[in-house]
Amino acid sequence: MHTRIRILVIVAAALGSHVSNASAATVFTNADVANNFVSTAGNWDNGLPTGGNAGTININAGYDSSVVLDGYDVTHTGGNLTRSTGLGALSLGNGTTWVMNGATAATTNTRGLSVLTGSQFTLEDGNADLTNNNTDTQTNGVGSTLIINGGAMTIGRDFIVRNGGVFTVYGGTLSGIDQILTQNFATAAGGINFNGGSTTADNFQFDNPGGNTVTFGGSTVGSLSLLVGLGNGATLNWLPGSLMSLTIAGADQAFYEGLYTANTLRFDGSNADPFGDKFQVSGSTLSLVPVPEPASLTASGLVGLLVLGRICRRSCKPEPCAPRR
Question: How far is CA 225 from CA 28, 45, 229, 236, 286, in A?
């Protein structure tokens, strides 16, 4: 009897612990009368979204741009996130994971976004308007990552990748960029990647000419349009199977062939093959030569299967039954 009681107690404790862990979450309520800041614990129903306490914002909220949000775990599903005070960008610090994922989720009055060392911002859906006061947006530091999978992001001035930051577009739209800049970019692994979506910018301006690779990959259709020109310092590398296109204002086939000859345009890290074997140009737009999909059954293959079928039917006929005596 005592053994059964002990077992029941242990099971109940385990279940209680599981429920407690599963329900460790907090929702932004804007209940604090002092302000509407996401950095104010009283504005959340279960404390700040830190230390494994995942938070959800689905109503209008504000932030103090002088505060770096360290260690936050937030999913923004609805409502406007607005700069309520301060003159800086929305700043995500070490350990923060911020996901914007809701058709009605938006940022307003926001002076750029700073994704700092060890933090990540992901746009799945919504409207991230970062244009207030024409301020830069950046990834700055090792482990700083900005990912766009969907939705729309509009940048007020430059997009800067610094000190090992990473920036990848898989889907959605990214616009309003003056220049895509790098600073100390040589420390970044795969710092700028276009794998889908639609991106527009004026040009590239990289601080380490010849050492900054922009990678075009992915398996979905996407485009990058440079409205002023290529700019300086970029090496463009297409991965096999990429469906990305690049349009540069004023470019033509001779321009792209010149980049290929100079080894600043590459296919899978190389310019060894003839340009026309890997790339095609239409007007000012560059893309990979489509790889023909293998036919599952050619005409000769079909004939062969038919012949095999007939042979099989003949050779596999059951033997006639012996006559009864």
Answer: 38, 44, 9, 14, 10
Q: How far is CA 186 from CA 13, 115, 213, in A?
A: 52, 18, 9
Q: Tokens 């792209």 map to which residue?
A: 256
Residue 98: beta bridge partners?
Answer: 74, 121
Q: What is each CA distance from 295 to 48, 301, 305, in whole angstroms?
A: 57, 10, 15
Residues 256, 17: Cα–Cα separation, whole Å: 61
Q: Where are the alpha helices (DSSP H) in the chain?
A: 2-22, 253-261, 275-278, 299-315
Question: Tokens 């990058």 belong to which residue?
Answer: 224
Phi, psi values for residue 202, rounded to 5°: -75, -55
Q: Are 205 and 230 in contact (CB under 8 A)?
A: no
Tell me the pLDDT tens digit for each residue of 136-153: 999 999 999 999 999 999
Other residues' Cβ atoms within 10 Å of the Cβ of residue 2: 6
Q: What sign results for the dihedral spanned by CA atoms 143, 225, 210, 171?
A: positive
The DSSP code for 42 is: G
* Integer Cα distance of 129 and 155 in angstroms: 7
d(CA 148, CA 305): 48
Stated pTM of the model: 0.83
Amino acid code (one letter) for 204: F
What token pair was written down for 79? 């409502």
Q: Do residues 192 and 160 touch, judged by C-beta distance below 8 A?
A: no
